[in-house]
Amino acid sequence: MKLLDSPRSGRLGAYVYYSTPFGQCCRALTMPRDARSPAQARARASFAACSQAWGRSLTEAQRQRWVAAAQTVPSRPSVGQYGPLSGQQFYVRINSVLDCIGQPPVTEPPAPVVFSPNLVTGLEIVQDPEAGLRLRLNVGVATEDIMVFGQAPCSPGRMKHRRVYYLGLLSPSQNGQSDITELYTARFGQPAPGQKVFIVTSQTRNGWKGPNWVHSAIVPPSSTAKSQQATEKAPVKKAKPASASPSSTARTTVSSSSSQAMYKGSTPEARQERMENKHEPPLSILGTPLVHGLLGA
């Protein structure tokens, strides 16, 4: 529910306050079902291991160096406010990213990095006649690892992604493209024609994670569907109308000439027409005796 209130975030009694692109909102506190999927269990285990290693694996001198390095690392803004991370938060942040991409943890704080410009320029989804549906990212020569995140196929009318899941590291490019079909279908299956696919990429180096870049594309129809559409749209030759028989011509003539005998109601125009046709001979219809003519004689 949207409301007019001072900016706030978090739980207060039986309500939870949060900010959205449309303003300050509030909802009732609910306890969501803990699905405990394999991905959730893996992420929780990684955070727990990194947090425990802060007190068990580091010396006091190492912890002090992490605390000093964290003073220049800002937290994620919340309600327009942010501040530096603590030493433990910075340690967990770096090593959780390293664990996610399969690299060993570090005990010393890494130096800040400056990432190169975004190398991934777009997502292409094509129907390959031989390989089938393929998802490819247009990418240049990468100097850092690129993390790939994805969202389940959705409606083509959706313009923003929602929750994305880590799929893996981007493979080396060939001819300016990197195929991510196996990464995506292993998690979400093959998308259907007409659905939209969102892909998020982020550069990473030494545990630092760069900004997110969002790419999307709509799945084109398959080659079989295209051939069926072409068959349905193919022009159909119309047969020439058969020549009218003499009997049908006669029936047409009768119907057109007998239109004078149609009832037109007691309108002034109808009465005037009857007065004008009062002395005309009666109408004769083909194939019937001239009864009116004989009676008149």
Provide tags for this entry:
297 residues, alpha+beta, Immunoglobulin-like, 3 domains, 4-stranded antiparallel beta sheet
Task: Compose a concise summary of this entry.
The chain is α+β, with helices and mostly antiparallel strands and 297 residues long.
* Mean pLDDT figure: 82
Beta-strand content bin: 15-25%
Q: What class would the helix/strand composition place it in?
A: alpha+beta
Main sheet characteristics: 4 strands, antiparallel
Helix amount: 25-40%
Choose one word for the global shape: extended
Strand order of the largest sheet: 7-6-9-10
What kind of oligomer do you see?
Answer: single chain
The number of helical elements comes to: 8
Poorly predicted regions are 248-261, 290-297
CATH topology of the largest domain: Immunoglobulin-like
**Domain module count:** 3
Protein described:
It contains 8 helices and 10 strands. The strands form 3 sheets. The protein has a 4-stranded antiparallel β-sheet with strand order 7-6-9-10, sandwiched between helices. Strands 1-2-3 form a 3-stranded antiparallel β-sheet, with no helix packed on it. It has 3 domains: 32 residues, no CATH class; 80 residues, no CATH class; 107 residues, Immunoglobulin-like. It is an alpha+beta fold. Helix 1 crosses helix 3 and helix 2 packs across helix 3.
How does the SSE layout of this entry go?
Elements: E1 10-12, E2 15-20, E3 23-28, H1 38-56, H2 60-70, H3 87-100, E4 120-128, E5 132-139, E6 145-150, E7 165-169, E8 177-179, H4 181-188, E9 196-205, E10 208-218, H5 223-232, H6 246-257, H7 268-276, H8 291-296
Antiparallel strand pairs: 1-2, 2-3, 4-5, 5-8, 6-7, 6-9, 9-10
Helix pairs in contact: 1-3, 2-3
